[in-house]
Structures are given as structure tokens and as C-alpha cells.
Design brief:
Layout: H1 2-33, E1 36-40, E2 43-46, H2 47-56, H3 68-93, H4 101-111, H5 129-165, H6 173-183, E3 191-199, H7 207-219, H8 224-230, E4 236-245, H9 256-261
Antiparallel strand pairs: 1-2, 3-4
Length: 262
């Protein structure tokens, strides 16, 4: 009986110790999130802030973190971009620079053409209003990210131009050539085309011939809306879509024949 009480007391003590360890462990985790890793003026950047930056990155930009140096690179890049953005916002407010948001939208469309489809009837795509709103929010957030980056870059270029004009710095032809060689993949202005289409379901009788008749009418100059009105009730218009002919995008090879035809 006495041994049983001792065992119960030991089990109770062990349970209390484990609970204390769990609570302490949670405190350690929380404290690590609050550890300051850098400062920008009077503003501190914590580990938690850095983790949030990584989480919000687009999948294609999110780095693989394996070492402390990887985290350092993320931190340095984040600080650089924040300095550039704040300078850009100030110069924009002062009227020194201006980056139209449409430029950022066009760049987002180049990177994500599948998200630029104008979905006027979401139910045709199996989407409800909340899903459509979420898609639009994701698109606007992505455009904002690109616009922020463009604004920061424009601010840096503006400062460089001013320094060149004042004779404070000089750039040699060799430096221009090295910079072009490094960034030539970015210095591309791809062709873009906005298209409309009419979809004839394969289950429709004589779908191929009806599609051919519609194409023939369009080739003869008949207005698109008139061709659509004359089409069978089973046919439906495709959402307005933008395609980009970008030599940097390998998937465009699949659309080569279509592009040449268009």
C-alpha cells in the first residue's frame, strides 16, 4: 500500500515535470520568434518577421533554407528591398518617379497567364463567389508585390541617373556590357495577344463542322459577336484570355502553331 502511494506520487511528480517542460518549451519557441536579427533605423526585424517574409514569398521565389547563410541571404535581400521600396514611395510622393500599376499587371500576366482569365460566369468553372474572390485577391496581391519591386528599382535607377548627371559616379562601357550580359534575359519585351473564342463541345453533333463554319465566318470578317449569336445554343464563348509569346518560356512551344496562325 505504501509502495503504491510512492508510485502514485512519483507518477504525479513526473507528470508535473513533463507539463513544466512543455510550457517551458513553448516559451522557448515563442522567445525564438521574438529574437531580433536586424534593425532598420528604429524598427527591429525578428526571426518571426523573417519567417513571415519567407511564407509570403511566391512558391517559385521561396528559397530552400538549409543553413544559417541561407537565412542571412533572405534577410539581406529583404532589407535591400525594404530600403528600395521606402525610397520609391518617397520619390513617388514627391513626383520624382512614377511606375504605373498597369506595368506590374502586365508583368504578372506574363508570369501567370492562367490567372488573368476574365471569369464572368464562375459557375461554368465550378467556382462559387468566395472562390472567385479568393482568386482575385491572390492576383491583386501578386500584382502589388511586383509593383513594389518595380517602384524600388525605379528609385535606385533614378538615384543613379542623378549621380551620373552630377558627375558623382561614372560607368564605363565595359561595365555596361557586363551588366547587360548578366541581365539580358530580363531585357525582353515579349509579344502579347488577347483572344476570344467559341467552344463547341465534342458531344455536340457535327461539332467540327460547326466550328469550321464559325472560323470561316471570322476569316471573312464577320463580327465575332454576330458569329457567336449565330452559333448553336450548345456553343459558349470562352473568357477573354491573354497569351504571351515569350522566348524565355519553354511552354510557349506548345502554342507555336496557334501563335503563328493568330
Amino acid at each position: 500500500m505504501k509502495q503504491s502511494k510512492i508510485l502514485k506520487s512519483s507518477a504525479w511528480l513526473l507528470g508535473m515535470l513533463m507539463t513544466a517542460m512543455v510550457i517551458a518549451g513553448c516559451g522557448i519557441i515563442a522567445d525564438q520568434e521574438r529574437i531580433e536579427v536586424a534593425r532598420m533605423g528604429d524598427e527591429s526585424i525578428t526571426r518571426g518577421d523573417l519567417y513571415e517574409v519567407i511564407r509570403e514569398m511566391p512558391a517559385q521565389e521561396r528559397p530552400v533554407i538549409q543553413t544559417r547563410n541561407d537565412m542571412y541571404e533572405v534577410l539581406r535581400d529583404h532589407i535591400d528591398r525594404q530600403i528600395q521600396l521606402r525610397l520609391g514611395l518617397r520619390l513617388d510622393a514627391e513626383g520624382e518617379i512614377h511606375v504605373p500599376r498597369e506595368r506590374a499587371r502586365a508583368e504578372y500576366a506574363r508570369r501567370h497567364p492562367e490567372q488573368m482569365i476574365d471569369i464572368s460566369n464562375p459557375e461554368d468553372f465550378g467556382m462559387d463567389p468566395s472562390m472567385l474572390a479568393a482568386l482575385e485577391d491572390e492576383r491583386e496581391f501578386g500584382i502589388d508585390r511586383i509593383h513594389d519591386r518595380m517602384l524600388g528599382e525605379a528609385a535606385v535607377f533614378h538615384r543613379v541617373e542623378k549621380a551620373l548627371e552630377a558627375g558623382e559616379i561614372s560607368i564605363t562601357e565595359e561595365e555596361y556590357e557586363r551588366e547587360y550580359a548578366r541581365r539580358q534575359d530580363e531585357l525582353v519585351h515579349p509579344e502579347r495577344i488577347t483572344l476570344r473564342g467559341i467552344f463547341f463541345p465534342e458531344t455536340l453533333n457535327e461539332a467540327m463542322s460547326q466550328a469550321a463554319d464559325a472560323r470561316r465566318a471570322l476569316d471573312e470578317g464577320v463580327d465575332f459577336d454576330e458569329v457567336l449569336d449565330d452559333a448553336t445554343e450548345s456553343a459558349r464563348p470562352l473568357p477573354r484570355t491573354q497569351l504571351v509569346n515569350d522566348p524565355r518560356e519553354p511552354t510557349m512551344r506548345r502554342y507555336y502553331r496557334f501563335w503563328e496562325s493568330a
